[in-house]
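Could you join me in thinking about how sequence relates to backbone shape in a protein? Label the sequence line and the structure token line clearly, so we can match residues to local backbone shapes. Once you have written the record down, we can walk along the chain together.
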Amino acid sequence: MRNLHVVDNPNGVLTYLQAGKINSGLSFVEGQNIHSARFLMRDDALVQTVELKAQTDGSDTLNGPMSAQVVATATNSAYSGPPRPYVVIAEHTANQAEAQMRANAEMARLLLTAYEVEVTVQGWLTPSGSTYFPYIGQLATLNSPLIDPRGPQLLAIKGVKSTQNSETGTSTAVTLCLPITLGGSSLVNYAVPS
């Protein structure tokens, strides 16, 4: 309901964050530090507008339609496909601000499935010597013409997975997504082709 995201920190403690606004300074560049990559872009679940309908607690000053018909919308300005109605009924009572947060969270959830890149880099450490885990929720630059020919993209770090085996050694898979899906910047330059 609050458009927050649950992640675990390097110590395994679950924390809530609204991410995608701080630049980590990390870059993933094709031909330099990207060992392998997987890219998923889809638009079958996207909509132009999410409409949330809710009710809020009534009082002497807030009653009738003002409390019974709370409506909030979240819009994807980059969407260019056919009209698709998408209406969500709030799980519990919500005032206007809470309803807007819930509508934004639903739009972010839909966009989370639209664009995802997983890049694998050699080793467990960033160029500065720390692990990638503290950067979850921050922004990183992806520069890979094969993955996204539009040029360098500023994406949010959605997840990190470090592995080790006897054949390939140590590696880290960093999952990237659109910043808007973690509460970050606008949708400009992130239109998914329809």
